[in-house]
Amino acid sequence: MDGGGNRQAKAALREEALRRRGGLSPEARIEGSLAVADRIAELSFEPGAVVSGFWPIRDEIDPRPAMHNLRQHGHRLCLPAIVEGKLVFRRLDPETRLVKAGFGTVEPGPEADVLSPAVMLVPLAAFDRVGHRLGYGKGYYDQAIGALRSTAKPLCIGVAFSVQEVPAVPFEDHDQPLSLIVTEREIIHCREFV
């Protein structure tokens, strides 16, 4: 499929998955977010690993309960920040000053240290079972994951509601696959540490 065809197919899948996600009740979103936190707690990471989370926007799953649990177990947290058109991951702790950012989210201020995550909780619009994801179309995470993978092997975990699953996401060379996907229903093992 050519680039234009891929873009159209991706846009249609994104719209379908986001419509289903938007149809979830507030209660289902809260319960799903708490269930995802429990599932992420089942995973084992290196002690003290740096974990990047994200601040939820609109009706996204909320990873903050999982992030709180990870901090309680000694992991260092960071959040993405857009700097000069690219994602960097800045330290997040109770003293971190959060500032308004694009897309209706917040990010740590520029005084927060930049960290290199070993584990990434990745937001998405849609996913399939082999680890392909659709983001929101800007490519920030694909670029950031690609850059990290050039020097390290971060464990990339898609975090979503099960209604965001689609049969197959069109995959292009610049797209970065996920190792795991965690939903309120299950942990999907997509591939070994890519």
From TrEMBL:
Its cofactor is Mg(2+). ATP binds at residues 10-14, 133-141. It is an enzyme of class 6 (ligase). Keywords: ATP-binding, Ligase, Magnesium, Metal-binding, Nucleotide-binding. It catalyses: (6S)-5-formyl-5,6,7,8-tetrahydrofolate + ATP = (6R)-5,10-methenyltetrahydrofolate + ADP + phosphate. The keyword Transmembrane helix does not apply. The keyword Cytoplasm does not apply. Substrate binds at residue 60. Pfam families: 5-FTHF_cyc-lig. One of its GO terms (biological process) is tetrahydrofolate interconversion. Signal peptide: none annotated. One of its GO terms (molecular function) is ATP binding. Its EC number is 6.3.3.2. Belongs to the 5-formyltetrahydrofolate cyclo-ligase family. This is 5-formyltetrahydrofolate cyclo-ligase.
